[in-house]
Hints:
By secondary structure, this protein is an alpha+beta fold. The chain has a single domain, classed as Hotdog Thioesterase (Thiol Ester Dehydrase, Chain A, Roll), CATH 3.10.129. It has three helices and six strands, in the order E-E-H-E-E-E-E-H-H. The longest helix is centred in the middle third of the chain and has 17 residues, at 87-103. The site of octanoyl-coenzyme A (CO8) has 16 residues, from helix 1, strand 3 and strand 6.
Amino acid sequence: MTTPSVQRSGPASSRTTAPAGAAVPAPSGPDPRLTSAVMADYRGCFGCGEEAAGGLRLRRTGVDDGAVTAEFDVRAELQGAPGLAHGGVLATAMDEVLGTAAWLLGKRYVTGRLETDYLAPVPVGSTVHLRAWCTGVDGRKAYLEGEGRVGGPDGPVAVRAAALFVEVPEEHFTRERVKHGHSTKERAN
Ligand SMILES: CCCCCCCC(=O)SCCNC(=O)CCNC(=O)[C@H](O)C(C)(C)COP(=O)(O)OP(=O)(O)OC[C@H]1O[C@@H](n2cnc3c(N)ncnc32)[C@H](O)[C@@H]1OP(=O)(O)O
């Protein structure tokens, strides 16, 4: 295990701050999505799916200095206030890149809590450069922080986030479908 050197201060509250002494694994574990039949229809993900009409189409670009990197383009349909990216879109992008960083720890996680700070407006037409890193794992709980920059990977920080992700078994993604009568087949029609 290595400690990512990227440790910038974020909006973390006590609920998204790892307890002292928590292990800080690097994002190098196997990607469980690649081995899971349940994830076969993941292309429909609103955050990163190629098949999600109107989605963010976030592109994962790698791992750099302990942080997962990604980017997405603020297309016109992602506008909120006139000329600017919708705040919910930016929160979604942070959720996606933080979630990716969590999953690359080698386990399946869902977002339990997401906190976001908006520091600068993000114009429609810009590309948002995202980074996310783990600040600690405590049992089933993984703590993540991240940021989104505009004007290039080293541009000003426009959005910051901190989150708590909770590890879940694979059944987490099937039992809710069963409970609510939802199936992949129905969704395809
Ligand atoms: C590559 C993939 C990228 C994916 C990116 C996108 C990620 C997502 O958007 S996931 C979808 C959104 N999230 C969800 O749908 C999750 C819905 N919530 C749930 O399913 C459940 O509430 C769940 C799994 C988070 C926790 O439930 P459960 O498994 O019963 O665990 P539970 O015992 O309540 O909590 C576990 C621990 O987490 C803590 N915890 C859970 N939620 C929170 C919260 N909101 N705030 C603080 N702590 C929390 C609990 O206090 C507990 O701590 P401790 O072990 O110290 O007592």
